[in-house]
Design a protein that fits this description.
This protein has 494 residues and is of the alpha/beta class. It folds into 3 domains: 96 residues, MurE/MurF, N-terminal domain (Udp-n-acetylmuramoylalanyl-d-glutamate--2,6- Diaminopimelate Ligase, Chain: A, domain 1), CATH 3.40.1390; 220 residues, UDP-N-acetylmuramoyl-L-alanine:D-glutamate ligase; 159 residues, Mur ligase, C-terminal domain (Protein-Tyrosine Phosphatase, Chain A). It has 15 helices and 26 strands. It binds ligand UAG, adenosine-5'-triphosphate (ATP), 2,6-diaminopimelic acid and magnesium ion (MG). Adenosine-5'-triphosphate binds next to helix 3, helix 9 and helix 11. It is an enzyme of class 6 (ligase).
Length: 494
């Protein structure tokens, strides 16, 4: 991408109550939110974070060459030659500034956002694959990876910050994309990462327990997700799962055209599961029968929302269903790995109580009879602690055996996390539950004890290829460890 030079007066449209101290003709060549990365000629945005207040780095930023500062409060002394853009909310203003800096790429793209506790990556990835199959050039912004057609750009967040986001959208536009599908996390709405973007549509999957460490209350969490629909324009569609009891709340105040999907009741897009097995799912969608490679009731919802979004964007039902029936699940979402003697390994990113319950219920539904279901699960450190006992309880109630282990402990003591999980184990399930903090050992133990036809679920890390311990990301891939364990004990089927 060519280097950009823009005067600050061209960046402030859309921002209410802005005061520029100094020249509004100062030209900036970058927008930077971290003083440790300042480049000469850049605009530094002082953000109030969860750990520190970025305002304390304003002088450091100008020392290092920043020529403009976007802030809520001015520093004690204003520097000669530096312009200060004072606003009520830096994070919100940054959304508009970033969009203007990159020439508002979202306005020239068909941009669809997906929000909800679970299913965002799945739905965004299915949409990306579907629209490519329909012949469009597409971009994807997701937890697993960002993508421009076949080019993979590693992702650091589910939804990048406003600067990274607009930069990626501009690059997608430059590379000829017409459609972009992105995840909209609740953090990103609350922190204004998506402010200033123009969406062609928004999808709501569901809302259940997660991220209360950040939002504090479930009400705030709902409000954050609803904020996405509140800001959709009239020209957009708002597609909601009305089987989720918060579905109607999400679109209460939206200006967008409301459409619904459901497996249970009358809706714009109605689906019914006719059969669901380990090899595929047969559904009826708006009276048309279709066979999918992807399985599980939760994926029936995901596919239905993708179908609805495609129709809302003007695509033809039959072409959409034909293309959808050929899609595979994204990496680490119900990814199956079988041993030569037919042990079924499933690696899944279920890291919330609801996702875990859905996946285990899907497994229960797919069982033939006496197979054991061995679940290996842990919970991430420095994240919502309330979900820990809940996830352990769900695992115990829906599995024959459970091995509680570590996820990404981050800066917490793994044993503390496991002790909190143990509080959720029902007394009658103690004898079928073990604790093995080392995830590698836990997977090997499960495989050593499994018999042909048994199902091993490894939950929580899905596509992740690392384990974060005290800020160090050690190589770790559940799928690879499972394959090794199969080769060690049972050999592996290709
Ligand atoms: C909780 C959260 O959202 N944190 C994000 C937040 O960091 P923070 O609030 O801790 O920032 P801070 O350290 O307090 O610093 C405040 C400001 O001062 C700046 N600073 C700081 C130090 C310094 O020396 N100089 C300086 O300028 C920082 O760059 C920042 O702009 O702002 C940072 C910059 O945008 C993000 O990278 C960071 O994401 C962290 C890494 C993170 O783990 N976020 C997760 C929780 C997250 O966002 N997850 C969601 C949803 C996940 C999902 O459900 O899929 C996601 O969208 O990924
Ligand atoms: N529609 C759904 N409803 C409930 N659970 C789902 C749904 N889709 C997927 N899941 C479960 O949730 C897990 C995570 O799915 P996915 O990665 O698509 O969600 P996400 O919303 O992107 O998660 P994150 O918040 O981490 O980005 C899956 O591995 C599966 O277990
Ligand atoms: N996007 C989620 C991912 C959680 C994945 C799980 N493996 C963990 O590390 O807790 C989060 O940041 O809360
Ligand atoms: Mg995701």
């Amino acid at each position: 991408m060519e280097s950009i030079q823009k005067p600050i007066h061209s960046l402030v449209s859309g921002i209410a109550d802005v005061v520029i101290h100094g020249s509004d003709n100062v030209v900036v060549n970058k927008i930077i939110i971290d003083s440790r990365r300042i480049m000469p000629g850049s605009l530094f945005v002082a953000l109030r974070g969860t750990q520190v207040d970025g305002h304390q780095f304003m002088d450091t930023a100008t020392d290092l060459g920043a020529v403009a500062i976007l802030c809520e409060e001015l520093p004690k002394t204003l520097r000669e030659g530096v312009s200060y853009i004072q606003v009520i909310d830096s994070a919100e203003a940054m959304g508009y500034v970033a969009a203007s800096f990159y020439d508002k790429p979202s306005k020239k793209l068909t941009l669809v956002g997906v929000t909800g506790t679970n299913g965002k990556t799945s739905v965004a990835t299915f949409l990306f694959q579907l629209f490519r199959a329909l012949g469009y050039r597409c971009g994807l912004l997701s937890t697993v990876q960002n993508q421009i057609e076949d080019e993979v750009i590693p992702s650091t967040h589910t939804t990048p910050d406003a600067v990274a986001l607009n930069q990626l959208l501009a690059l997608m536009l430059e590379k000829g994309c017409s459609h972009v599908f992105m995840e909209v996390s609740s953090h990103s709405v609350a922190q204004h990462r998506i402010t200033g973007l123009k969406f062609a549509g928004g999808i709501f999957t569901n809302i259940t327990h997660d991220h209360l460490d950040f939002h504090k209350t479930f009400d705030n969490y709902i409000k954050a997700k609803k904020g996405f629909f509140d800001q959709l324009p009239k020209s957009a569609f708002a597609l909601v799962n009305i089987d989720d009891r918060r579905g109607s709340v999400m679109v209460q105040n939206t200006k967008a055209r409301i459409e619904t999907y459901s497996l249970q009741t009358v809706a714009t897009y109605h689906g019914k599961i006719l059969s669901d097995t380990l090899t595929g799912m047969h559904m009826e969608i708006n009276n048309q029968e279709v066979w999918f490679r992807v399985i599980g009731r939760f994926n029936a919802y995901n596919l239905l929302s993708v179908y609805g979004a495609a129709l809302a964007l003007g695509e033809m039902p039959e072409e959409v269903l034909t293309a959808l029936s050929n899609l595979n699940s994204p990496p680490g979402r119900f990814e199956q790995i079988h041993s030569a003697d037919n042990i079924v390994g499933i690696v899944d990113y279920a890291h919330t109580p609801d996702a875990l319950e859905n996946v285990l219920q899907t497994i229960a539904h797919l069982r033939h009879g006496n197979e054991q279901v061995i679940t290996i699960v842990g919970c991430g450190g420095n994240r919502d602690a309330e979900k820990r006992p809940k996830m352990a309880e769900i695992a115990c109630n829906l599995s024959t055996r459970v091995i509680l282990t570590s996820d990404n402990p981050r800066y917490e003591d793994p044993q503390d996390i496991l002790d909190q999980m143990l509080k959720g184990v029902p007394p009658l399930k103690y004898k079928n539950t073990s604790v093995i903090p080392d995830r590698h050992e836990a997977i090997f133990k499960a495989v050593a004890e499994a018999n042909p036809e048994d199902i091993i679920l490894i939950a929580g890390k899905g596509h992740e290829t690392y384990q974060d311990i005290r800020g160090v990301k050690h190589d770790f891939d559940d799928r690879q460890v499972l394959r090794e364990a199969f080769l060690n004990f049972h050999s592996q089927k290709e």
